[in-house]
Every structure is written in C-alpha cells, then in structure tokens.
Amino acid sequence: MTATIRLTAAQALVRWLAAQQNEEGERFIAGVWAIFGHGNVAGLGEALHAAGDELPTWRGQNEQTMAHAAIAYAKQLGRRRAMAVTSSIGPGATNMVTAAAVAHVNRLPVLFLPGDVFAGRGPDPVLQQVEDWGDGTVSANDCFRPVSRYFDRITRPEQLLAALPRALRVMTDPAECGPVTLALCQDVQSEALDWPAAFFAPRVWRRRRPAPDPVEVARAADLIRAARRPVIVAGGGVHYSGAAADLARFARRHGIAVVESQAGKSALAWDDDWNFGPVGVTGAASANALAAAADLVIGVGTRFQDFTTGSWALFANPALRLLAINVNAHDAVKRAAEPLCADARLALAALSAALGDHRAPPPPAHLRAEWFAAVDPLTAPPGPGNALPTDQQVIGAVQRTAGPDTIVMGAAGTMPGELHKLWKAPRPGAYHMEYGFSCMGYEIAGALGARLAEPGREVVCMLGDGSYLMANSELATAAMLGIGFAVVLTDNRGFGCINRLQKATGGAPFNNLLDDARHVNALAVDFAAHAAALGARAVHAASIAELEAALRAARGADRPVVIVIDTDPHPSTPHGGHWWDVAVPAVSARAEVRAARADYEVNRARQRRAD
Questions:
Q1: Cα 372-378-382 angle, rounded to 5 deg
Q2: Can you name the residues that pair with 46 across neighbouring β-strands?
Q3: 3-class SS shares of the chain: helix, strand, coil, % to 5
Q4: Are 391 and 572 in contact (CB under 8 A)?
Q5: Is the preceding peptide bond at 125 cis, omega within 30 degrees of 0?
Q6: Over the stretch 450-478, which tens digit does the pLDDT of each residue have?
Q7: What span, in angstroms and rounded, lies between the C-alpha atoms of 210 and 245?
Q8: 42 and 80 share a domain?
Q9: Burial of 531 (0-12, 13-18, 19+ CB in 10 A)
C-alpha cells in the first residue's frame, strides 16, 4: 500500500519546495518573500510559519520590490538558485506583475504565488476580486499570463502533483528559464489531501547543458574562417552558462575581439586585451568601431536587444553575417542568423576544437587605449570650484573606493548608460544591471537581493532621485534584516536621462526635471532624512571627496548606507554611443523637432532589414 501524508495544499506546496535542490546540494528555492492578506495568510501563511527555517520567509514592504529582490538574487547567482514571492489577491497580486515582466524579459527564475479567488465560488465576488462579465474563470492573476513562462491556476489540491514539477522544470531550464506563476485559489490552499509520501522525497534539478549539433558547429567554423573582421558580442548567457573563462580563452586562442552588452558586461575583465568594451547605444567608441566594420558578428548568449545593435543600424558592413550561439532557439535564429543552438560553454569548446589553430586577423589594439584616454578624464576628481559634480565624476569616486569583489548595480535612468561606458569591472559578476526591462525602482530592492545572494561581497547601488522616489521601501526591510549595502543617490532634481532624450529629439524640456513640471510649491526632498527615517544610515555628501569618504565609511555596515549627492542633470559622456531609434514626430511647429526628424530619417535608412 502506498504511504501517504495528510496535508493541506499549502502545506504540501511548502514541504515540496523545501525538498528541491540544485546540483550543489542547496535548496533551489532559497526562501519566500511574503506580504500576507486574506488571499494567502490563512493557507500559505500558516504553512510557511510551520516550516520555519526549512523554507525561510522574509517580510517585504511592497509586493513589486520584494519580487525585485528575488529577481536580483537569482541574477547574481547566475540562476543557480531562486526565490518564491507570495501576495494576497487583488492589488497585492497585480503589484507583482511588473516584477514578473522584469524576470520574463531577463530570463530569470522566480516563483510567484499570488492568492486567487475561491475555486468553489461561494463568496463570489470576494473582496478585491476582479470580475470579467464575459468570462467567469478570469481573475486579476490572469495579468500574469503574458509575463510568465508557465502559468497555472490551482483549483484542486491534487493539481499540485503536476504543476509543481512543471514549475521547477521551467525555472531550471536554460532555454525556457523565467518566472512561473501558480495562482493559488484561497479555499484550495486550506483543503486537505492524502499525498503520496514519495512526492516529498528530495530531488536534484540539474542545469542541463544542451550540446551543439555537429553540423551547426561545422557551419559556424566555416563562417569564422571566412571572416576578415569578426567580433564577439558577449551577452547575459555567458554568465548564466558560467562561460566567462571559456569565452576569454576562445578570444585569445582565435584572436577575436569581444564587446559586451549590458547583460554581458564583466564577462571579461575590463583590462583584458581582448575586451574592447561595451557595445551599442551606450557603447564605447572602440567596441562600436569594431561592430560597424565587422563582416561577422558572433553573438554569445545575447538576444540582440536594440541597445546592443544600435537599433540595427550599428552593423554597417554590407557583407555582414550573424552567428548566434544561444541555448534558446528563438534567439539563435534572429535576423537570419546562422544558429549554433547550445549551451555557451559547450558551444565554445566544440567551436574552438573545430577551428583548431585558426586565428582571425588582429583587431586594431590602439582602439582600447584611445577609448580610455578619452573617457578617463571624465571620471577624475574635479578641480577646485563650485560647479555641481557630474554623474561621470560620481562613478569615478565609486570606482576609486571599490574593491576587487565590489558589485556595482543599477537599473534605469542615467546610470545604466554611464556605467556601461565607464565602469571598469574587474571580474565576472562585478556588474549587475537590470537593463532588459530597465525598471525604475529595481535598484534598492535589487541591492538587497544581490547582497543576500553573495553576503561576503560589497554592493554599491547607484540610482537617481527619480528611481528613489518610485521605490525605496525595501531600505526598511534591509535595515530590519541587518543587511548592509551602499546606496549612491544622485539628486539631479528629476528625470535627467529622459530630459536629455527629450531635447535630443527636438522637444522642449517639459515634465521631466522638476523645474520644468507643473507645480505650485517647489519640491525639495531631504533624501538623507527620508532614508534615515526608514532605518538606513544616511549622509549628504557636499563634494566628490566627501562621497569617497562616505563610501569608505560604509564598508561593513549592518544596514543600508545612503549617500546623497547633488549632481548636474545635463552632462553625459560625449564619447562613444550610437543612434537609438526613438520615433520623432513627422509634423511639428517646433523647428527643433523638424530638424530632429530629418536626422531621424537619415539614420532610419541605415537600419538593417529584418531578413
């Protein structure tokens, strides 16, 4: 007779998650972020309390930002572990939809467990229920469908027997990896079932490494041998495959320069002779020069986002061919690329063996030196004077105080572009940027998640006042948990990055900087006082020198340290970069817009066709 255990659906879910392991023998789901409400407190809340440290629960302050912390945790660990996030139904659930989109775009594993309506429909409609007058099966959680790699609504306890393994399969699959949503009907959470005891036996989820097809390897090798100006674009898949060292060896052996996307940055150390820097819209002149001249672009784990390709106007060589090394077939065939669909590490090894001693013509080494000669002065300490510091000088201050294990991170606004160009990452994992969805508000929660992932490393979160005002509540969580990291908050009085884009497209400064927005009372936020009120240690740095001193003092803190510095919203790094397709109005009364539209038409004509 089969042994059984009588548990509620919520208790069974918690017990099963606690038994799932990765290849290193760690619990794959490290824990659960939770904000309880009537949709999850009685069922899942009781089960999590009983589990204790077998499946730890952390209390967040906002459903979206606690999910960002879970996303950053998985990202920093290269998808080797993940977290679950639970909320009540209604606004708690829909607050997490944005975070689900972040995870979906970035191909990162998170398990969303929102409470749902009553499967039995006894109290229909329940508090916070979203009713669809044409479909009685719809709830607010259907918003998760387009931003989940796998979605299931649990309307019977026994459905978990199939749904849970499906969820972990997706979260641990290198090609399909992303967020999973199991919408938990709140009455079902508390219903009991006699579960097979074998269901809760520990299970190890291996990270599969799909091997390359020999025919694809041979075709890829032929392309490389025929190329005179090949270049490698390193993407996030290099990190998720653990292939950074393999990529460095491949580049050195075959003499092919490497350029880095936002997700791929730090794949090679900044001072590696084969690292020609960041590529694309926020790229270095050195990298973009190689990309523009390339007759073969070899993407390794990149999805060729528009910032990487300069909206497909960067690769200017008419003879260009694309070779896409990617574990995901969808990405491997983009833009008529020749696919090498496999794990990056295995693909590079097979391709290197096929190439033998082949070496490409050497790239112009002087491009690297010229790039650093151009931009290093921008990050140097400012001379005497009363001018507001620039974002570039702030980055320089962080760079000078950072150690070899420091993680610098951000997400949206000015910092992604400036850090992509200027940050000198000394090792893989030293650069953590959420730029797939570019979600304002990810930064502070992301710093919390990154520090939870690697507690022995210093984390420096860089963000502007706009992102801080959008989402800062997880400072209180970090202070409560005794988790320290540094937050460098550049106060440029508004959305400085979009203000520059607005002007670049011919628009008048409007509604981005606070001084250009409609208001009655001038806004003057004391960010240091606000951060201190949330439990952080906070200081206002009056200069770059004071910023450096505050960063040094922040090391080893048992809570977040927020350092506020006023900055000039207008300057950006003038070197490097590339056109980005932001559609300019075809008709306008402004001469500036008409001029910008003329430039837009010229650049749009340079875009490569999708085929």
A1: 140
A2: none
A3: 40, 20, 40
A4: yes
A5: yes
A6: 999 999 999 999 999 999 999 999 999 99
A7: 19
A8: yes
A9: buried
Q: 511 φ, ψ to 5°?
A: 70, 15
What local confidence, expressed as pLDDT, does residue 399 receive? Answer: 97
pLDDT of residue 611: 59
Give the pLDDT of residue 46. 97
Structural domain count of the chain:
3
Whether the CA torsion 420, 422, 427, 432 is positive or negative: it is negative
Provide the residue range defining the domain that includes 54: 4-204
Query: Quick one: 389 and 519 in the same domain?
Result: yes
**Residue 439 maps to a domain:** yes
- Do 428 and 556 lie in one domain? The reply is yes
- Give Cβ neighbours of residue 560 (< 8 Å, ≥ 6 apart): 444, 447, 475, 478, 479, 483, 484, 485, 486, 487, 531, 535, 536, 537
The amino acid sitting at 159 is: Q
Nearest Cα neighbor of 540 from 488, 493, 466 is: 488
Taking alpha carbons only, the member of 157, 143, 49 closest to residue 99 is 143
Q: Which residue has the tokens 């650093």?
A: 372
Contact 342, 325 (CB under 8 A): yes
Q: Do 336 and 394 sit in the same domain of this protein?
A: no
Cα–Cα distance between 596 and 507 in angstroms, integer? 9
Residue 445 lies in a domain: yes
- pTM here is 0.97
